[in-house]
Specification:
heterodimer, A: Arp2/3 complex 21 kDa subunit ARPC3, about 0% strand, B: alpha+beta, Thrombin, subunit H, 2 domains, 12 strands, rod-shaped
C-alpha cells in the first residue's frame, strides 16, 4: 500500500498551525492586549476541515484538533471532543444544504460558527459538567466572533496553500457541497 | 607754427580738467549743506537704495526664513525623535519602576511569610473564554506539583491543576471547576468556595443556621496544607437563604482580580502557617 505522504504532510501542517495559533491566542495576545477578547483561531481550522473535507476526514481532523487544544484549556478532553464534534456536524449539515465555496462563503461560515460556538459549549457544559459554565459576556462574545471572522480570510489562503502543497486541491473543495 | 597761436579747444579742455575738480573741492570745503540741484538725485538715489535695501532685506529675510524653516523642520524632526526616544525610555523606566515595586512587595511578602513560596510569572490564559485559568512559567523542574495553592499578597488566586516541565496551569477561584475549602473569618462557619462566573465565586454548603453577613471576609481553612490558614479569599457580597432547604447560597467577590496579575506565588509548602487574627476560634 502506498503511503499518502503529501496528505499526511497537509494534516501535520494544519495541526502545527493549530498549536502555533492556539499558543498565540492564549499567550501572545494576552501578554500584548491583556483581556481584550482574542479571536478563536482553533474555530477557523475546525470550520475549514468541516467545509472542505469529506465527513470521515473532517471527523478525524476534529479528533486531532481536540487533542491539540487540550493543553491550552482547563476543559476536559471529553467535553472539548463532544463540543468540537457537535460543531463540526452542525457546520457539515449546513454545508450539505448551502454551499458555493470560496473565501466569502468560508468567512460567513466562520462568522456564523463563532456566534453559535459559545451556545454549543454552554449546552455541552450543562450536559457534562457538574458545575456548568455560564453564557459568556455578550461584548466579549461579539468582539471575538468579529475578530475570528476577520482572521479567517488570511488563514483560508494559508490552508488553501497547504492543500496545494499536499496536492489535495482537486480532492478537497471539489468533492464537497451538494451534488 | 607760431608760439602764441593756441588751439582754443585744447586750452578749454585743459582748463576744464584742472578747474572743475578744483571747483568741486572748493565747493565741498565751503559748505556742508547739500546743493539744491543735487537734492532730487539724492532723493531718488536714496529712495532707490531704500527700495533695494528693503527688497534685499525682504529677500534675505525670506531666504533666511526658508533656510531656517528647513533647519527648523530638521530640528523639529530630531526633537520629535528625541522625544519619542525619551518617551519610550520613560515608559520603560516607569514599567521597570512599577515592576520593581511589585517585585519588592512580593519579595517582602515572601521573606515575611513562613511558607515556602515560589515566584512565577504569568505567561498565558485559557483557550476558551468560559474558563478562568492562567499559565505560569514554573513547572515540575522548579518543584511545582498538582494541587499546590497559588496566591499573591492580597489573597488566594487558585491552585495548580496541570503541571508540565517548565510551566503549570492554575485554575482560578472564579473558574466553574475551582473548589477551595474556606471559612468565614468572623463566625468560623465552614463551606466550599466554587467558581461562579467571571470575577465572582460562591461559598456553598454553609448551614442555614451559620452566621454570615454581607461584607464578611472569607478565608482559607488551611485544609491539606494547600494554603496557609486564614489567608483572604474574598468578601461576601450577597446571601440567598431560600425559604426551604438546609443550606444558604453566599456569593463572594474574590480579594484578587487574578486575570490582571503578572506575577504570582505558588505555595510549595504552607508549613501549616496560621494567619488567623488573635481571638479567632476554630
Amino acid at each position: 500500500m502506498k503511503i499518502p505522504w503529501y496528505w499526511l504532510l497537509g494534516i501535520v501542517l494544519m495541526i502545527a498551525t493549530v498549536v502555533v495559533l492556539s499558543a498565540a491566542q492564549t499567550s501572545l495576545w494576552f501578554l500584548v492586549l491583556g483581556r481584550f477578547p482574542p479571536p478563536m483561531f482553533w474555530l477557523i481550522v475546525l470550520v475549514y476541515v468541516s467545509v472542505t473535507r469529506p465527513l470521515w476526514e473532517a471527523t478525524m481532523m476534529t479528533y486531532l484538533l481536540s487533542l491539540t487544544m487540550i493543553p491550552f484549556t482547563a476543559s476536559p478532553l471529553e467535553e472539548v471532543l463532544v463540543f468540537c464534534l457537535l460543531l463540526m456536524v452542525f457546520i457539515f449539515l449546513i454545508r450539505e444544504r448551502v454551499f458555493w465555496g470560496g473565501p466569502t462563503y468560508f468567512m460567513m461560515m466562520v462568522g456564523g460558527s463563532s456566534l453559535v460556538a459559545p451556545i454549543f459549549y454552554w449546552f455541552v457544559s450543562r450536559w457534562l459538567d457538574k458545575t456548568p459554565i455560564f453564557i459568556p459576556e455578550v461584548f466579549d462574545w461579539l468582539i471575538s466572533a468579529c475578530l475570528t471572522t476577520l482572521f479567517s480570510l488570511p488563514l483560508y489562503r494559508l490552508y488553501k496553500w497547504f492543500d496545494q502543497v499536499a496536492s489535495q486541491d482537486a480532492g478537497a473543495e471539489g468533492r464537497v457541497g451538494p451534488r | 607754427m607760431n608760439f602764441f597761436t593756441f588751439d582754443l579747444r585744447k586750452v578749454f579742455l585743459i582748463v576744464a580738467l584742472i578747474v572743475l575738480p578744483l571747483m568741486a573741492i572748493n565747493m565741498q570745503r565751503k559748505s556742508e549743506e547739500e546743493l539744491w540741484f543735487t537734492k532730487p538725485f539724492t532723493f531718488a538715489g536714496a529712495s532707490m537704495q531704500h527700495a533695494f535695501a528693503g527688497f534685499s532685506s525682504g529677500v534675505r529675510g525670506t531666504t533666511a526664513m526658508y533656510m531656517d524653516l528647513i533647519g527648523v523642520k530638521k530640528q523639529n524632526q530630531e526633537l520629535k525623535n528625541q522625544l519619542a526616544e525619551l518617551n519610550a525610555q520613560l515608559g520603560a523606566m516607569t514599567e521597570l519602576k512599577m515592576e520593581n515595586e511589585r517585585l519588592g512587595q512580593l519579595l517582602g511578602f515572601k521573606q515575611a511569610a513562613k511558607m515556602n513560596l515560589l515566584a512565577a510569572r504569568v505567561i498565558a490564559r485559557d483557550l476558551f473564554h468560559d474558563h478562568n485559568t492562567i499559565t505560569v512559567d514554573r513547572g515540575l523542574n522548579h518543584g511545582v506539583q498538582k494541587n499546590m495553592g497559588a496566591l499573591t499578597i492580597g489573597g488566594v488566586i487558585g491552585y495548580v491543576f496541570r503541571v508540565e516541565k517548565e510551566s503549570s496551569q492554575i485554575l482560578l477561584l472564579t473558574d466553574s471547576y475551582a473548589v477551595v475549602d474556606a471559612i468565614v473569618q468572623r463566625s468560623r462557619a465552614r463551606g466550599l468556595v466554587e467558581g461562579l462566573r467571571k470575577g465572582n465565586a460562591h461559598l456553598r454548603y454553609l448551614k442555614r443556621s451559620d452566621d454570615v453577613k454581607v461584607g464578611d471576609l472569607v478565608v482559607t481553612s488551611g485544609l491539606f496544607n494547600m494554603f496557609p490558614k486564614g489567608f483572604p479569599i474574598g468578601s461576601v457580597t450577597s446571601i440567598d437563604k431560600s425559604r426551604y432547604g438546609m443550606t444558604q447560597e453566599v456569593e463572594i467577590k474574590p480579594a484578587i482580580e487574578a486575570l490582571n496579575l503578572e506575577e504570582v506565588f505558588i505555595v510549595l509548602n504552607a508549613n501549616h502557617q496560621d494567619l488567623t487574627p488573635a481571638g479567632g476560634e476554630d
